[in-house]
Give the backbone structure.
Amino acid sequence: MIAVADLALSLNGRPILQQIAFQAQPGEVTVLLGPNGSGKTTLLLCLCAHYRPGQGDIQICGQELTSLSYRRLAQLVAVVPQDHHPVFPYQVREVILLGRISRLGFFSQPTSADDEIVDDILKLLNIQQLADKPYTRISGGERQLVLIGRCLAQEPQVLLLDEPTNHLDFKNQFVILKLIKDLARERQLTVLLTLHDPNMASLFADQVILLAQGRIAAQGPPQEVITAAHMAAIYHLEVEMLRAGTRHLLYPKIG
């Protein structure tokens, strides 16, 4: 679980986040939605202790974030960054195995049990065929799966993902988001991710937090937050909604 209360952050004297308060629950996918520059990525960076807010409280799994050692934080929270540029051509198996670091003692070597965990993750993600391939020579969608695999190797309780569908084609966007939702449910992970597409958020989110200019403009179930009125106000764009049963599709008004 993530619990944030009255969080505020300024960088170089400029307010970036103000009065941020929300909870994200185990077994659910919470989506941060909002325009570029609204503070989505910065909020994620606060939750993984990259930035220290000037005000407010962050609790991770019932513990104050500031009280957690980096090792303990890595055991609780796993992060999939927006862009990842590897320096060395590690094999896919080795990249996933790196997720075990926080579970190993100092000077310890991975054991057969760690190798079995990696094998199980490769099977879970259906990427066994990539195990011995260089991470630098696989597709963008495959890399996202490998990074999620590395996170699962940490055995976290919280999963943070920054634009996990970035640069992915239509099919792989769906594959990645469905996988994330399934993992949240099956493993009772608290999942918080950023997205740009309100329609994808509507399909896969249990809760949506709408950010605008560093503040929460709305939060709640997607059907309450992702509305034509909210999108028009936040993005300064005329929006129309097409309804099909319980689902709806938002699109910019043309002409």
